[in-house]
Amino acid sequence: MEEVMNDVRFPEPVTLKFLTASRNVASTFEALECLDQQWPQWARGRSWRAAERACRDALDGWRSARDAHKVFLKAARRAGLIPSATRSSRKSRLGRQINNLGTETVFSGWR
User: Fold this and answer.
1) What is the pLDDT of residues 22-71, one digit of tens each?
2) 34-56 burial by CB neighbour count: b if 16+ within 10 A, else e?
3) By the 8 A CB rule, do 81 and 16 touch?
4) How far apart, in whole angstroms, are the C-alpha atoms of residue 14 and residue 26?
């Protein structure tokens, strides 16, 4: 009897931007399909292999969906497939925090 792999959903979908279209990748199986069929040949290096391995391991129950998502995202960034607005989410979060301070912030001890 053959063992059937269950698909593992990512914590949040990854939107990839190819030359002719965009694609939302929401699970490890979709990520493997994308890595195999749509990934640029020139970008099939170390990070591509790591993403493929992480997604296969997640399907087999050896790694978490969050871990596979993180490794896949890194490979997509290295391949230039992540739109620039998504690429700097950490920076934009910091920018929002700074903007939320506003001009009415009072520092204790200052008059």
Assistant:
1) 999 999 999 999 999 999 999 999 999 999 999 999 999 999 999 999 99
2) bbeeebeeeeeeebbeebbebbb
3) yes
4) 6
Spatial contact of 27 and 10, defined as CB atoms under 8 Å apart? yes
Query: In this structure, which long-range contacts are made by residues 26-30, counting pairs with CB atoms below 8 Å and at least 24 apart in sequence?
Result: 28/55, 28/56, 28/58, 28/59, 28/65, 28/68, 29/5, 29/55, 29/59
Q: Are 29 and 97 in contact (CB under 8 A)?
A: no
First to last CA, the chain: 77
The structure tokens 């009415």 sit at 104
- Residue 17 burial (10 A CB sphere; 0-12, 13-18, 19+): middle
